[in-house]
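Data availability (excerpt). The following record was deposited with the supplementary files.
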Amino acid sequence: MLKKKERERIITEINITPLTDVMLVLLIIFMVTTPFIMQGNIKINLPSANTPSDENLEKFIIIGISADGKTYLNGKEILDESVLSNELKDLLLKSQDKKVIIEADKSTFHGTVVKIMGIAKNAGAEKLAISTIPEKNKEELIR
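Predicted structure:
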């Protein structure tokens, strides 16, 4: 039988089991709630990437850039950068989530995409995302 002093000994080790449980739950929550973008009705040939997709989408601010360099804000063609900036500011003021998603055709010049990202940041976007097609959906589009 253990002596009284041995039973009352202070445990100096850190129990990481609860920490691991919490981290795994958070990981699962982030994986399930991360929204992904589906293809809009503007003709944009997105690049592909190894990313999972999700069918439950929220309403986001989407800037589309077609292969010929035309810019669209939520499906509406924008002809001038200042108009894009002003309309984007208005949408971001109304939005709780200050996230802007850029859907650029894979043949669009890198400089054009960077310029649009700068306009979005200056308009007040806190997060920028670039939309891609998951690899498994790419095979379906080729057929």
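Summary of structural features: The helical segments are 4-7, 17-33, 81-94, 110-123, 135-142.
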